[in-house]
Amino acid sequence: MQIIALGDNNLTGPIPNNNQSFNLPRLQRISLSRNNFVGKIPSRLASCQYLQVISLSNNSFADVVPIWLAQLPRLTVLSLGANHITGCIPAVISNLTHLTILDLSFSNLAGEVPKELGLMRELSYLYLGLNLLTGPIPPSLGNLSGMSFLGLGENSLFGLAPATLGNIQALKFLDLSQNHLEGGIDFLLSFLSSCTKLQFLWLVNNYFTGQLPDHVGNLSAQLLEFRAEYNKLTGGLPSSLSNLTSLYWISLSNNQLIRAIPESITELQNLALLDVSYNDISGPILTQISKLRNLQMLYLHGNRLAGSIPDSIGNLSMLEHVWLSRNQFNSTLPASLFHLDKVINLDLSNNFFSGPLPSDVGALKQVCIFDLSSTFWLEASRNHLGN
Question: Three-state SS for 122?
Answer without folding.
Answer: coil
